[in-house]
Design goal:
globular; 444 residues; TIM Barrel; homodimer; 13 strands
Chain lengths: 444, 444
């Protein structure tokens, strides 16, 4: 491991936090979704903890249940991150933008403007979109996978070419000589793909990191790996076990190798959800308090995950020895092995679920040491280069993580005590890039 | 006139100012184009002068001459205005966004997010785009005018419907009752036009002004008047004379009447460029200092505008009595009558051009009184409800306008001494609107 440090990013979702019902906590203003002051506050808390970036997932449509749940993303990632950029100095911004429904010229322009404005802290999480609700918002049918990914290749190539179209030394700005730009260094890109095209150039100069860092996200299908391997410096993952993460990370690294890159140029970043509390019991109680209904509704499902029958009368009793003997992790559900491990610690079904065992990501509940142990174990097993952390409730959960987990990681030598630099590239440890990667030859 | 006040907006272009060569002034950092701190500083200066809004023209392509001239717009209007919104409290933002090349769902989302974030200060200048260089950046052909305007109607209708799709009382956010939104009040819009469609809803609540204010801009063609009359609360104009402005304003007001609206609901806002200086001579010298080459290059054109021959040896002498007798304003160039009026004041050809007589907008050069007189004359003649002002050099020109012109307008009772309110609607004096205008029935 030597002196390699783990990277932390923070998932910025709806303004409330990763815990179901976070918006209902009495110390949370239920109007936070529309309150950018709160987003700024949470970003500054993460910056205090030397987080390398904020990550905004995005789903440009309203999900089904908004009566009892929140809107699961920011009002608009780039608009809100532009505001946050004004009030932070080191933390980066990895904003999700669809290659399916965004115009490459607009993507190139807005992300590079944010990058210049933030002095080199922007990243673009380039993803394809197949959800019919999103497609309907853009008045289009859902494209098939081949088309979506061909379009994604074209979009990323066009965006990176536009980023490089203002050459790094194009801006003369010599007042005496009356020369603003060297026009020979601001050139059209003239890219024409099967689905997308752009002439350019883009009239935006380089930032302190050159251009925004490209990420991608999702399950490692061959289609996505071909995107990740060629273009991405970061890979946002959803995995539940170390084994799964190690295997996936290796696929991602191999994809980079296949594209002629050093695999260390792409950082594999799985998600984690956190509840930092003095004891596990207090952490579980915090989660039950706000997510109680959701956990209640999931109880009938727990037996299925463990392959046993659980009677509703026994939801608040530890599993019996007989149940524990016959319980087994389903090979088809990667969350079930963790559910089984928690069950074996002697928790009741309700408490097992309160551990977040069937939540979106691995969840850690309890003191800072438990969190640090989890991150260290994954990191040292080669399951992650870093993590995107979604605290249970932003209002106090970011500070709790920064105060209780970060110092332990620092003490263990796993995490930087100061920002390595002022740009996202520096803080991720990924190489400089301007324009397309010269090692790639043309479109797929 | 009674107590009606004139409205001021400030044109935010490249960061330097409206004067050719502003970027070369020694007191200007030539890197200002990429420096949002400067944009914030200029915005705050305008806010000190109670400007109702900042207006960002936009041209998403690089114009031909960038060797000696600047990029003529912001890096990205919305991204930069989002930053400015964090550091201002009352000034509004009217950002140009194309109905031709922007997805209505994205327009609706980003503008409403900015509106909510700025507590009700956003406006959308909805324009069509026919420039081949812009079309090429989006990989598309230039559409014909009928198609562009049909698309514009559809885009504005979809955007306004999406803005209204989160009904004003939809957000319950009752923590005790565990009800976040009333789903019956967050409804799809299901709009399907000939070119554009969107299902919605848009997951963004109302702002303090409900939704962004719609503007439009351009010459008053029947196509544009049909947009302005139906949807716009502000009309950004380019005119050179009072007569032209009065006629155009009446066309715009009639278009609103034809759409069943009160003509006072649409504010007609022509442009003006300003050089505030202790004397006219000092103002002209300031302009000659930075725009000297451009003025030099235009000198051969001045004779044509005035219908006389001007020998290059006489560029620095006043026109002769014989020349002044035979000079006449061309009925085909609205700028020529002003050029003639300036010539008759006894200025040399070079000084006539330094008055900005063939610039983008009427230009005033000299003491604050001259500026106030111009604005008052136009305002009282019914040629304008307000003006969008582009100072010659932002770095000191905004402060000069605020310190030397605004107090005179206030003393004359023409201009508010305090912001009428905190929202763009309040500061423009336009009525509340949420969702589509109920007086309009369907698409054209």
């Amino acid at each position: 491991m030597t002196d390699k440090k783990l990277i932390l990013g923070m998932g910025l979702i709806d303004g409330y936090g990763g815990l179901h019902g976070a918006w209902r906590a009495p110390h949370v203003d239920p109007g936070t979704y529309a309150d950018v002051d709160a987003t700024v506050r949470h970003a500054r808390a993460a910056e205090r903890g030397k987080f390398a970036f904020l990550f905004t997932p995005d789903f440009p449509a309203v999900r089904a249940d908004v009566e009892h749940s929140t809107i699961s993303n920011l009002m608009d990632p780039l608009i809100q991150l532009a505001a946050v950029a004004r009030e932070t100095t080191n933390i980066g911004f990895v904003a999700t933008g669809s290659t399916t429904f965004q115009e490459p010229f607009n993507t190139a322009r807005q992300f590079k403007a944010l990058d210049v404005m933030s002095h080199g802290r922007a990243g673009w999480n380039a993803v394809t979109t197949s959800d019919p609700a999103v497609a309907a918002n853009y008045g289009r049918p859902v494209a098939d996978r081949d088309e979506r990914y061909q379009r994604a290749h074209e979009a990323i190539q066009i965006v990176q070419a536009l980023w490089g179209s203002w050459q790094q030394d194009a801006w003369i700005k010599d007042q005496q000589a009356n020369r603003f730009i060297d026009p020979s260094k601001l050139r059209p890109v003239n890219l024409q793909g099967e689905y997308l095209a752009s002439r350019g150039p883009l009239g935006i100069p380089p930032s302190e990191q050159g251009q925004p860092v490209v990420f991608t996200a999702g399950g490692p299908s061959p289609h996505l790996l071909s995107i990740a391997g060629r273009y991405a410096s970061g890979f946002i993952a959803e995995v539940w076990t170390i084994e799964q993460a190690c295997a996936q990370r290796e696929l991602v690294r191999n994809a980079a190798r296949d594209a002629g890159r050093d695999p260390d140029e792409i950082k594999y970043i799985p998600g984690i959800m956190t509840t930092v509390a003095p004891t596990v019991r207090e952490g579980l109680d915090r989660r039950l308090k706000y997510a109680g209904e959701v956990i209640e509704a999931r109880l009938p499902h727990l037996g299925a995950i463990l392959g046993i029958q659980i009677h509703p009368d026994r939801y608040d009793e530890p599993l019996t020895p007989e149940q524990l003997v016959s319980a087994h992790a389903s090979p088809r559900d990667p969350r079930s092995s963790n559910a089984l491990a928690v069950a074996r610690q002697g928790w009741s079904p309700r408490d097992i679920l309160a551990h977040g065992v069937i939540d979106f990501h691995p969840t850690v509940v309890g003191p800072g040491e438990l969190h640090a142990d989890h991150l260290q174990e994954w990191f040292e097993a080669g399951a992650a280069d870093g993590f995107w952390v979604t605290p249970d409730i932003y209002e106090d959960g970011v500070d709790a993580f920064v105060d209780e987990v970060v110092p332990i990681l620092q003490k263990r030598g796993l995490y930087p005590t100061e920002y390595p630099g002022t740009t996202l590239r520096a803080n991720l440890g990924v190489p400089h890039q301007y324009g397309p990667d010269p090692r790639l030859t043309g479109a797929e």
